[in-house]
Give the backbone structure.
Amino acid sequence: MANLIIVDDEKLEIEGIKSTVDFYKLGITEIFEANNIRQAKELFLNNSIDLMFCDIEMPQGSGIELLEWVRENFPKTECIFITCHADFNYSIKAIQLGSLDYILKPAMPEELEKVVVKAMEKIKMANEQLQHSRFSKLWVKHQPLIIERFWLDIINQTIPSTHEEIRKAALEINFPGLEDMNVIPILVKVQNWNREMNMRDEKLMEFAIGNIAQNLILKEESNGITLELDKETVLILIYLDEFEDKDLSLLKEDCKKYITECSKYLGCDLSCYLGSRISNHELFETVNKLLELDKNNVIFTNKVFSLDEKREVSQDIRLPDMGMWLPMLESGKKDLVLEEIYVFMKELTNSKEVNANVLYQFQQDFIQVLHSYLKGKGVLAHMLYSDNQSAELYNKATRSIAHMIKFAEYGIEKALSYVAEIEKSKSLVGKVKSFIKLNIDKELTREYIADQVYLNPIYLARIFKKETGIPLSEYIQKERLKVAKELLSKSNMPVSSIAAQVGYTNFSHFSRMFRKALGISPVDYRKNTAKN
């Protein structure tokens, strides 16, 4: 017998589910109801719940978020998602590949009954496995958060990689013998998403990646654990008994199936990096080797790599001669530059000897060319990669040849667009004048204005004087004086307020400027204009 909770923000949906199936006949003794995540958590904390029906979309939090909390705190509970969104097909398919199921609203009686029977069989099997599994696997199943923290502490070196230190840590969490456990680590790295995603989609995909790994590689929860190292990196640890062996060739085939399913249902490219049987104190070193393997995989996607596969990398790859790239850009021949980049990247791909360091060297030389080009046009170099999109492309450039090509294409286009704007100098001066007019009450330094139009301050001053015939500072002062005269003659504002309105925080300074320009004080100017 088991208990059920139904979580849905629509009370009519809950009543409909309850009235559709004879749950008692299927082994459900008690049914709890919750309209949001907060109510559901309270019921979980105060009752034993074996099965959960949960809507995916709810106002105060999604069903995925609730499931993550349930998995952390009540790992034995099985979940069945209910949704009315048929366009969630890709996420539903991902969930189907794991130990969960889903039904589409409105739920048909036969669908509900079928999925409850399936869940009850799984609950029964899980209970039977708990009765017969080794004590370590039993403990791991009941303490997912503690065991996850234990492994992450080893990987992050919070627990030093020695047999004695690991033994002490195992005793502290009441798990003696863990220091003797052997594992096979598999690093999973998402290399590219082939669709645009919002934050909710990203969270769902992170969940699905681990869920599919659980089903296709670990197969049973007690066989290992999946650890999220970052949002694009998952580490799978396969647990091995003392005398248990694992056929790495079969494990490699499982990884290939995993890559195929993730590509098909999640729309992503990823690679798996397969380690061998190791003891706990070797985990930190092995994970770093797997990360290094991924770092230097800048060519291949959707592939399985093994640590024992020797891969020679040439240390003498000659970078392209970029000496002519600057004059090419200056003469507007960007296509020639891009063609040379494509040819070089193709040569790297064909050589299969490139690593991340080669791409890093190329990136630095290429940036130097762009900076030289911008400097000659008076553009501040740091503006090239100051926005979020540029920064992301910059950081990802050395991850693969494809990323480097995107980075180079974007950099060239952005540099040329900046220069094109600057060369429209009359339009540029117009923008500067408009900015001054709209911000006349602020402290308008040359540096502040130049920053708004992405120019070097000296270059801006030179262009402005060339086009207007007067220095930038003199123009600003004339504009301030113009506005001050208008306000003095056409308003009753206090003179001190007018001073602040045209950018002078010091009233005495404003009076001196006014008198120097017109030979009369602001107060006398107002009196004279009033008489006239």
